[in-house]
């Protein structure tokens, strides 16, 4: 019997089946010795069973996550300071852990990290605020002169354009293109930036939450090991490996992003300050006059990938335009070189591949994040999308393992080339057309 069950599971199921009454009376169960292995039916093999229905615990957990998500979304304005606190926790926790390994109590380690961070912020304020205030005051005083210089340079460019001797047909086409571009700029719906502006304005309304943020962050850093152990005890033993694997994925992505953004912002800000100072000595003094202000804009612009550096370059180019076309081009070249060095040297070394996303995905994530959560949503769009990508890949692989599907062991298959991808897309399109034709009949 055991040998038959091992060779054919259906034999064991038949042997354990209950007696079935018939018209002639109840039948007796067949003897195990009389049962022969049943050959598999012809045709394709039956696929392995998929994931079953969720257990009650999974259903309760999914419901709780959904409720918490709805509550957090409804209170998005109130939780923004605590999101900033979590980002600071990612930055401070490694230092707290290092001091705690030296035998320092965690509450004392947190206070020491606070003292170091406070000294660093005070030093940065002392170095940047006085010249920044002077440059902002100078800019406000010279704003009418700057506007007049821009108008003068545009008029000069128009005169140069008139003296080029361009053929009438090309000139008419260029005039139409410029006119169309100006009309498009006038008709731009500025409502797309309204969420970001509203988010910046709501900072004042959340000032109280930011004031209590240091106390909240202190308890979070001090009790982080205890909170971690409490969460581990609350999880079923079978869930713990996957749960902590997901936490590790998110921690890796956000940790690299937070530390990388700080280093990138400092690097780009310092490089911009040095470059603008050099331009102030070699091209026009106006760049040195506003070097600190423009460098701070460039450093904070790194929080918004792709869009931020472009926005940061606009003020420098406009200020250069007040002195002529050559200074404006020099500023444009400077920011272009800094951006290329950042993308090809700094980003691969600082952030690695943890948050690498295609530019098309980055732009969509920025727009969606800004529309939902304003400025903070646009800033966090990149790490949230990257973490979601990695978590999805992990869960997709684990779901395949649970369902008994192959996980791609052995030598990995070579990725398809461009022609193979186009062929697969074309085959899918043909299948869709055929399916639609069958449905129409």
Characterize the structure shown.
This protein has 441 residues and is mainly alpha-helical. The protein has a domain at 77-182 and 189-228 and 236-397. The protein contains 17 helices and two strands. The protein has helices spanning 2-7, 9-15, 56-74, 76-101, 106-162, 168-186, 194-205, 207-211, 213-222, 224-234, 240-282, 286-289, 291-301, 307-321, 325-350, 359-402, 418-440, and strands at residues 21-22, 25-26. Strands 1-2 form a two-stranded antiparallel sheet. β1 and β2 form a beta hairpin. α11 packs antiparallel against α15 and α11 (240-282) packs antiparallel against α16 (359-402). The radius of gyration is 32 Å and the shape is globular.
Layout: helices, strands, pairs:
Blueprint: H1 2-7, H2 9-15, E1 21-22, E2 25-26, H3 56-74, H4 76-101, H5 106-162, H6 168-186, H7 194-205, H8 207-211, H9 213-222, H10 224-234, H11 240-282, H12 286-289, H13 291-301, H14 307-321, H15 325-350, H16 359-402, H17 418-440
Antiparallel strand pairs: 1-2
Helix pairs in contact: 4-5, 4-9, 4-11, 5-9, 7-16, 11-13, 11-15, 11-16, 13-14, 14-15
């Amino acid at each position: 019997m055991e040998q038959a069950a091992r060779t054919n599971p259906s034999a064991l199921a038949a042997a354990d089946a209950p007696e079935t009454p018939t018209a002639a009376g109840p039948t007796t169960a067949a003897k195990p010795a009389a049962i022969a292995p049943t050959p598999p039916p012809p045709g394709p093999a039956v696929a392995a069973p998929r994931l079953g229905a969720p257990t009650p615990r999974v259903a309760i957990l999914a419901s709780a996550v959904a409720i918490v998500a709805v509550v957090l979304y409804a209170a998005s304005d109130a939780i923004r300071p605590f999101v900033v606190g979590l980002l600071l926790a990612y930055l401070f926790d490694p230092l707290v852990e290092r001091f705690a390994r030296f035998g320092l109590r965690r509450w004392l380690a947190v206070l020491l990290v606070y003292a170091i961070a406070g000294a660093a912020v005070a030093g940065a304020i002392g170095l940047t605020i006085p010249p920044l205030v002077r440059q902002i005051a100078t800019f406000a005083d010279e704003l009418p002169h700057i506007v007049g210089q821009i108008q003068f340079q545009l008029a000069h460019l128009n005169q140069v354009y008139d003296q080029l001797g361009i053929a009438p047909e090309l000139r008419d086409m260029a005039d139409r293109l410029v006119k169309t571009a100006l009309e498009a700029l006038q008709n731009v719906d500025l409502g797309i930036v309204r969420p970001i502006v509203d988010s910046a304005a709501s900072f004042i309304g959340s000032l109280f939450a930011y004031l209590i943020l240091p106390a909240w962050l202190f308890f979070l850093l001090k009790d982080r090991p205890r909170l971690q152990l409490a969460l581990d005890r609350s999880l079923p033993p079978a869930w713990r490996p996957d749960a902590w694997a997901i936490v590790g994925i998110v921690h890796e992505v956000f940790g690299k992003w937070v530390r990388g953004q700080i280093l990138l912002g400092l690097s780009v800000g310092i490089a911009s300050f040095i470059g603008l100072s050099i331009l102030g000595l070699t091209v026009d003094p106006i760049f040195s006059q506003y070097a600190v202000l423009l460098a701070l804009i460039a450093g904070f612009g790194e929080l918004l990938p792709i869009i931020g550096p472009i926005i940061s370059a606009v003020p420098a180019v406009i200020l250069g335009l007040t002195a002529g076309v050559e200074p404006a081009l020099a500023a444009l070249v400077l920011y272009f070189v800094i951006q290329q060095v950042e993308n090809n040297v700094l980003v691969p070394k600082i952030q690695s591949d943890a948050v690498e996303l295609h530019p098309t995905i980055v732009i969509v994530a920025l727009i969606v994040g800004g529309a939902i959560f304003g400025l903070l949503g646009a800033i966090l769009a990149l790490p949230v999308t990257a973490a979601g990508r990695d978590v999805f890949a992990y869960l997709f692989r684990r779901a395949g393992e649970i369902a008994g599907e192959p996980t791609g062991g052995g030598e990995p298959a070579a990725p398809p080339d461009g022609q193979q991808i186009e062929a697969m897309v074309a085959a899918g399109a043909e299948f869709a057309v055929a399916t639609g034709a069958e449905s129409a009949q």
